[in-house]
Amino acid sequence: MSDKIFVSAEEVARKAGVSRSAVSRAFTAGASIAPETRRKVMEAAEALGYHVNHLARGLMRNESGIVCLVVSDMGTPYRSALIKALTQQLQNAGKIAMIVNTDRSDERVDMALRQAIRYRADASIVLSGMPDKSLVDLCVRNGQRLVLINRDDEHQGPLRINLDDDDTAQSVVTAFLRAGCRRLAFANSEAGTPSLMTREVGFVAAAREQGLDVTVERFGPTGYESGKVLAQRLMTRRERPDAVFCVTDLVALGFMDAARHQFSLSIPEDLCVVGFDDIPQAAWSSYDLTTFAQPIEEIAAAAVAWLMSEDVGQSQSLRLNAPFVWRRSVRSA
């Protein structure tokens, strides 16, 4: 068996009876080439199974077309949806996505990101959570274009995309007050990521503006099982909350199941619950969760548009709104 894998442009030129430069022009959009010559090249390429080496072309222009997605918690519904939107829009823009899984912030993550840099990735999009700030600095030092999503890092040159957490917090507090709730709680994980902690701080501050204290409870990773434990902790207090803002929908779903099945509470009659993300499960009839919708397509479009623009030298900050999705886990006014 032959070790040869790729058909070269020179082989296409010989089969088509044209020059090597004619093959290059045939596969270059807008290049000047006679229709008959293009036809010969395309027929020869089809017969030989030739594909243009875009990586080699890009490296000649000091561009690889690779965009590295630095991601944690890829299995969660929200993160999966964001990855899907980003990869689709990158592909539409002619880019290739390379994913670095940062669920563990150790030397293997650093090694994976360095490998992406060795492949000459043009840019990195860093989603909230991990990696450590030092890995973000690594991207900057290697001259990559950089997009930070739901992070507070301050760097020269990147685009930072965040959500308007102040508006979110005010909306939740208003909804709880109109439902007649006065004993408020916030259910958070122990992940401590910038976006989650900003959500907590904003809610506590908005409640205090209305003269209300918030009971804050944190536990474990940001997931369904943690929500169940958080409900057990909050519902066994001497004074139970009558309204809970959960840091994500997954936490909220676990919280609701524990509140109903372990403590026989009715939602929203006994307890009002709000989540965040608007994952598909939030709309299931068994939950019907009031939540905030992550503007996933808008985030992806803004990130890719900025990476494709000519002027990326200036640091930019973009703040987006997360629409309030009203369902039946909060009593109506």
What does this structure look like?
InterPro entries: HTH_LacI (IPR000843), LacI/GalR-like_sensor (IPR046335), Lambda_DNA-bd_dom_sf (IPR010982), Peripla_BP_I (IPR028082). This is Substrate-binding domain-containing protein. Keywords: DNA-binding, Repressor, Transcription, Transcription regulation. GO terms for molecular function: DNA-binding transcription factor activity; transcription cis-regulatory region binding. The chain has 333 residues and is α/β, with parallel strands linked by helices. It has three domains: 44 residues, 434 Repressor (Amino-terminal Domain), CATH 1.10.260; 123 residues, Rossmann fold (3-Layer(aba) Sandwich), CATH 3.40.50.2300; 131 residues, Rossmann fold (3-Layer(aba) Sandwich). It is 42% helix and 16% strand. Strands 2-1-3-4-5-11 form a six-stranded parallel beta sheet, sandwiched between helices. A four-stranded parallel beta sheet has the order 7-6-8-9, with helices on both faces. The chain has a two-stranded antiparallel ribbon with strand order 10-12. Helix 11 links the parallel strand 8 and strand 9. Helix 2 crosses helix 3, helix 5 packs parallel to helix 12 and helix 10 packs across helix 11. It is elongated and about 85 Å long. The termini are far apart.
